[in-house]
Amino acid sequence: MFVYMLNIHLILIFIVNICQGIERPLVIGHRGSAYLPELTLESQSIAHAYQADMVEIDVCLTRDNQLIVIHDLYLNAVSNVKDIYPNRSRSDGYHYVIDFDLNELRNLTIHERIIPFTNTQVYPARFPSSSSIPFHLATLNETIELLLGLSHSTNQQYQLLIEIKNPEYHSQYNTSISSILISTLQAYNLTESHHPIVIQTFHIEDLLYIRENLNSRLRLIALLTWNHLNESSSNFDFYRSEEGLQKLETFVQAIAPNMELLVNFAEDGSIINVTNLTVLAHKYNLAVYPWTFRHDTYKGNFEQLIDFFHRTVQVDGFITSQPDIVIELLEKKI
């Protein structure tokens, strides 16, 4: 019965896509979009304006248990925290989100991602990290309000893909970030599989906890990578196997693997061959949304890359920093 209900949820995903007129793979705006500092409300707004089917965000907890939208567990790569709070770093030199209350984080300004302590911009072609424009961190509540407000004002359906950052790390502080997330969503009556919220995390056991212990009916996605990267204690080797995918089918609707788990690349970036992961995932009714497609860093022919993943690998969606470019390339092929 449980598997049957989850298959119904999968059908609902396709119904939502049909209602939105989507005849191509989904396009998910990674951290909003690449055109303004990541994950700010402004960056998210651009992704929505470019008609991304979903906007992907990351959430961490503050010291006072507020959900803040930020990719890293620390603040140094995207903010002026070392200038505002010079004496609040830990012994490793980093300022961690969970060491600050929300009101303290409101004092920070956000810039394009840099390598901490060097001021070297990670993606040089993107918005200048030296800009004096005062971007700010957003809370999950503000992000949801943006989503709902835009849906109301444009009469279009927008969707949000929420990544829970490192639940195991947060559990060290005697708190369940997943429980707080579900409670926050419940306050907005965002609880059903057809609602515009999807949750993902690298800690796959937390997804099972959300489904079984928190009784959430929201759509869930299992992020997959290599074990040696230590994104979580989950055994990704197992979850990429047929047995693992068969288990995932019982509580998630999709997988989001590193693109290199679907395609073997040569050192020069050329494609060697396709793995069996997409075929196996589809065998167990799991959609496949690989990450991260970056037009500004890919050294080969980006159009050919998107076409290959679309036509040959047959993925169900793309997680990309440039949703507008990927949408244009996909619709050009229809």
Q: Can you characterise this structure?
A:
Belongs to the glycerophosphoryl diester phosphodiesterase family. It comes from Adineta steineri. It is an enzyme of class 3 (hydrolase). With 334 residues, this protein is an alpha/beta fold. The protein has a single domain, classed as TIM Barrel (Alpha-Beta Barrel), CATH 3.20.20. Helix content is 35%, strand content 16%. The longest helix is centred in the N-terminal third of the chain and has 18 residues, at 2-19.
* Spatial gap, N to C terminus: 37 Å
Under CATH, the homologous superfamily reads Phosphatidylinositol (PI) phosphodiesterase
How many whole angstroms does the radius of gyration measure?
Answer: 19 Å
CATH uppermost class: Alpha Beta
Q: Work out the helicity level.
A: 25-40%
CATH architecture verdict? Alpha-Beta Barrel
Mean residue pLDDT = 93
Number of domains: 1
How many β-strand runs? 14
Strand content: 15-25%
State the major sheet: 10 strands, mixed
- Element-by-element helix/strand order: HEHEEHHEEEHEHHEHEHHEEEHEHEH
Write the layout of secondary structure elements.
Elements: H1 2-19, E1 26-30, H2 41-49, E2 54-61, E3 67-69, H3 81-84, H4 102-105, E4 114-115, E5 120-121, E6 138-139, H5 140-154, E7 160-164, H6 167-171, H7 177-187, E8 197-201, H8 204-212, E9 219-224, H9 236-239, H10 242-248, E10 254-257, E11 263-265, E12 271-274, H11 277-283, E13 287-288, H12 302-313, E14 317-320, H13 323-333
Parallel strand pairs: 1-2, 1-14, 2-7, 7-8, 8-9, 9-10, 10-13
Antiparallel strand pairs: 2-3, 3-6, 4-5, 11-12
Helix pairs in contact: 2-5, 12-13
Family: Belongs to the glycerophosphoryl diester phosphodiesterase family.
Pfam families: GDPD
GO molecular function, one term: glycerophosphodiester phosphodiesterase activity
